[in-house]
């Protein structure tokens, strides 16, 4: 088995003498900045003026422009949306990089697909938490952590690996486990996971189940509880103890249905399509499409997003979640509103 490093295997001393700039204060940015600060590291956040700037100030972290943060720091962690990174890098990061600095990412996209080409005299590595930033923060405050991958692309200082591990420990990931990968493996597996399983696969499965029940005449509220709300409770059991733990808790009737009907939904055809998706990722077809979509100001992204937000499952969900105050506030912290009026 591959070596998974934990808290006690990692010496974070190397990072204590460094200043860390966190560029961006969104999902990952706020979590890295606050976790590192509370782990005792010297952190500055680099931003443009706006919503994130105000939030960072409110949270009590030092904030300045991206250029100033880069110039002041030894370790520059780029936590901007992937599609904005190349421009901000060229304009505000690259001109202020010093030999021996470390340029760090939480996802390998821009390095692997050559959208950012760093100079030869800096370290380049990634520390990629395997979970959403808001959970990187929440689990840290609970004394736990989200596992992370690390990879070294360029080791100018001879310390890149040590720095990456110390950084992973600082954000709390070593409480869960940290393991080594390459930029290629992180980029391709992360894109595949989010498209085919975690995000795209899961939302498509939920919607297909919901629509099947509603189109057959069942109440949308019943379909919502069955296909979305309860999924979290089932996934908690998978997270805690794998497939067998979940199957231990469900009825034998459900387990028999799992065995005989699951493979009717997700089968060799589905796997063949997963392989197509992986091929598009490996060959750069997906990356090219996403880069062009952004260059065109996201016509498809915005249209699909509008339709998805108005889907019946979202309307029903907003109403039902309002009746369950124990559910944590959505991470976007927006008040839940019914888009385009109630149904
Ligand atoms: N989301 C996640 O959980 C995960 C993300 N990653 C990776 O982490 C990186 C960051 O992703 P994520 O946290 O989702 O990003 P977000 O979309 O949450 O980050 C937005 C942040 O970037 C700032 N920003 C955007 N454009 C600019 C700009 N031009 N100049 C300065 N600041 C800007 C925003 O500030 P403003 O308010 O001013 O717009 C905001 O603070 C990506 O590489 C992603 O792939 C990896 C693992 C999981
Ligand atoms: C699953 C989506 C993710 O890869 C993540 C939270 O790990 C992302 O890019 O946001
Ligand atoms: Mg991911
Ligand atoms: Mg991702």
Automatic annotation (TrEMBL):
Gene Ontology terms: cellular component: cytosol
Pfam families xrefs: KARI_C, KARI_N
E.C. number: 1.1.1.86
Example GO biological process: L-valine biosynthetic process
Active site residues according to the UniProt entry: 107
All copies of domain KARI N-terminal Rossmann, residue ranges: 2-181
Database matches in InterPro entries: 6-PGluconate_DH-like_C_sf, KARI, KARI_C, KARI_N, KARI_prok, NAD(P)-bd_dom_sf
Keyword 4Fe-4S: no
Keywords attached to this entry: Amino-acid biosynthesis, Branched-chain amino acid biosynthesis, Isomerase, Magnesium, Metal-binding, NADP, Oxidoreductase
PROSITE patterns: KARI_C, KARI_N
Pathway connected to this protein: Amino-acid biosynthesis; L-isoleucine biosynthesis; L-isoleucine from 2-oxobutanoate: step 2/4; Amino-acid biosynthesis; L-valine biosynthesis; L-valine from pyruvate: step 2/4
Superkingdom per UniProt: Bacteria
GO MF entries: isomerase activity; ketol-acid reductoisomerase activity; magnesium ion binding; NADP binding
Swiss-Prot/TrEMBL catalytic activity: (2R)-2,3-dihydroxy-3-methylbutanoate + NADP(+) = (2S)-2-acetolactate + NADPH + H(+); (2R,3R)-2,3-dihydroxy-3-methylpentanoate + NADP(+) = (S)-2-ethyl-2-hydroxy-3-oxobutanoate + NADPH + H(+)
Domain KARI C-terminal knotted: 182-327
Binding locations of Mg(2+) 2: 190, 226, 230
Reported cofactor(s): Mg(2+)
SUPFAM superfamilies in the record: 6-phosphogluconate dehydrogenase C-terminal domain-like (SSF48179), NAD(P)-binding Rossmann-fold domains (SSF51735)
Functional summary from the UniProt entry: Involved in the biosynthesis of branched-chain amino acids (BCAA). Catalyzes an alkyl-migration followed by a ketol-acid reduction of (S)-2-acetolactate (S2AL) to yield (R)-2,3-dihydroxy-isovalerate. In the isomerase reaction, S2AL is rearranged via a Mg-dependent methyl migration to produce 3-hydroxy-3-methyl-2-ketobutyrate (HMKB). In the reductase reaction, this 2-ketoacid undergoes a metal-dependent reduction by NADPH to yield (R)-2,3-dihydroxy-isovalerate.
NCBIfam families, per the entry: ilvC, PRK05479.1, PRK13403.1
Family to which this protein belongs: Belongs to the ketol-acid reductoisomerase family.
HAMAP family reported for this sequence: IlvC
Protein name: Ketol-acid reductoisomerase (NADP(+))
Source organism of this protein record: Neobacillus massiliamazoniensis
